[in-house]
## 1
Amino acid sequence: MSATTDTGTSTRRKSIQRWGGLLLATVVWWALYLLNQPFWDWLVGRVFGLDLTSRLGSGVNFFFLDTVKILLLLAGIIFIVTVLRSFMSVERTRALLGGKREGIGNVLAASLGVVTPFCSCSAVPAFIGFVASGIPLGVTMSFLIASPLVNEVAIALLLGLFGIGPTLLYVSAGLVIAILAGFIIGRFKLERWVEPFVFETKLRGKIIDSTAGLTWDDRIQMGIEEVASILRKIWPYLLVGIGLGAAIHGWAPQDFFAKYAGADNPFAVLIAVLVGIPLYSNAAGILPLIDALYAKGMPMGTLLAFMMATVALSLPEMILLRRVLKPKLIAVFVSVTAVGIIGVGYLFNAIL
Amino acid sequence: MNIKILGSGCANCINLEKAAKQAASDLGIDATFEKVTDYADIASYGIMRTPGLVVDEQVLLSGRVPTAAQVKELLAPLLG
């Protein structure tokens, strides 16, 4: 046998292994997802002997049910999104944004913010990298707002807990807020409130694309590592969020929140956003809570606003951004985003 | 050989440093290691995603943590 045939066969075998493995994983995932509810109903209801309609029974059932469901959703979506995003890079985003005027630049930046892989630890280098290469401040802000606001964890959970409708609403609202906020910040010509060193940073050296040369095995590996890393980071938040959600599910009277924070309370959205802004949680911790609140009568608009406020603006991120933005700009950034979120909350309450 | 690890102290940067040190010792390279944590310096290399690996002022990798084997592959062509 010639050497080429050997290599050909082994590459094909690896390829079959890889795609076969993925197919198997998908089937197992679906099986677990569909069997989740019946399993816990059986275990908690029959084996533990709890009455599923009682407070304790339904609370405990909800806790296990939601934990497994959310873990499955997170693993699935994070994996898929990471693999997809491995085709995109921040460097390519910067190249795409270079030279675009405001307006169209904001739209492009916000859309790219959603699809580009980005973690908040890179917020500062990315900001400097964008601005120093000539991308307008407002356009950069659109990217920086869209990226944490429309994140895959939130999308995964919204999809699983509420379906495609609220998920699409969330994504479009996030994009619109990012575009408008960035545009407004750009209009006000706030470059003077950026730390001067940012504009003086000289970009030297060859710009390399961090995603060049990745094989499929590399991408799958990255997907698996990202799932592990995110789950490792958020599992405490998740348990607390689910625990709170389970408590509300079991103990709060039905329609409790509809009475006090329902659609006819004009301050509900405002309070929800003001509470959400300083809260630091990622979407995984907040969404189980939101699931339970929704079941108890809180309107979707208020809840989405609360979630966005918690996820998009956080104290640690503001502290990080202080290195490149003067406090006044940070204040503008927070207020414009907050107003956008509040507006979205009222709008959704009105139309849903 | 001068090897710089760019990053502000998150776990990824520490892992990159470990992988790079492992690769360097496996290849028998006598390299000086530096950690660059200042954002302005990091950005000046054109890096937008930490961690970053810079060898003799050339950016070799950014945005992910490679295995020691992958770092070796990157370093090998630069030897002698």
## 2
Amino acid sequence: MDDREVRSILSVHRTGESDARLREAEQRAGADLALADWWTEEQETDRAIASKLQEMDVPSTLKPRLLSQENPPLMRQTAWRRRILLAAAAIVALAVMFGSWRGPFQPAVSFADYRDEMVSFVKVDPALELKSNELSHVRDYLAKSGAPSQFQIPKQLREMQPIGCRSLRFRGHDVSLVCFRRGEGKLLHLFVVNRAAVPNLRATAEPQFSPEGEWMTAAWIEGDQAYLVTTEGDRAKLEKYIPSA
Amino acid sequence: MADVNFERLVEEYYMPLYRFGLSLIRNQSDAADLTQHAFLTWAKKGHQLRDPSKAKTWLFTTLYREFLAKKRHSERFVDVEDDSQFVEPQQIAASIVDSLDAGIVQQALQALEPRYRAPVALFYMKQHSYREIAEILEIPIGTVMSRISRGKAELRKKLTDAAAIEDRKVVPLQREHHHG
């Protein structure tokens, strides 16, 4: 267990809830002054955040409202609300008959959803299931996990060493995530999923660039796989590894 | 059957329940409705609970289920699966910690990815054990811990970013020059 791992474990530590890993981390902190200092500071920060959350105002009208045991306004069934619901039901029935509407409860999975979720996942450095600089080991691991492993990597990415990988799930589809270190202490992430998972991604081998907050993404289709590459920074940062035609 | 006095239950838990609701759903009125729904459901069905000591967890679970039910109607649902590994949160400068106020923390919490928001809120509320948080959120305890770990890391980033924005808002006052 290295210091980084000890800090990761201690950051979720709570008194009285120890498992073997937490106990070991606790012992390490007890024997290492730097770790002990870090942990003291960590607990002070947590205490400050917790105390601020306790200061969140609670409306003075809430308690009497709860004690009166009235229904919340949104739950009250009024005649006009019933009429609106009936009208909405009729519209839904018509829409379903014409077959072009999927309904509010089963939204169509869009490529934007996929891109948002994948990028949000790697904004905090992801925990890797396999740490390896060998692409062949990465492929073997992903294959064993049931995630896509036979994917094509752009030339510029092939020249970089991966640092590891993990598998994810997106709406029932296995996703491979391979991480590369690109310098400046930053990572570059490659996601591969069966193209059926993102039916509305334009079927083109030409990368489509799109910003996601302070991150840039590039996506393309090749064979039956959908590729998504992302890194923190602007388009020029990503084009060094994923050149546009 | 649970022998729990309704008024005492309200007295004891309405504030943490409301704060949990507010951390999930950014709107005060919706948070109040979620809290009210939880207590109303208790008034109707609480008697079915065999173990009175579970009343607190039951109320939080009920509030969270109602939140999910509303959320499924209005938002897409994130289902990237987690593992049980933790990440190291970044340290926040002592000056930032000292300058935190409830509003900034609340905004940062509400800006978290939905899958992290509830476990992190419950972690900082210190009302529940990890096992109880797992029961409330209906996810395995390992997932609770990894979401708390990742959520805390994300929260720290947001608090640091918010402090940087606040710093940029500080405009130095122009000194008045008196001539003569």
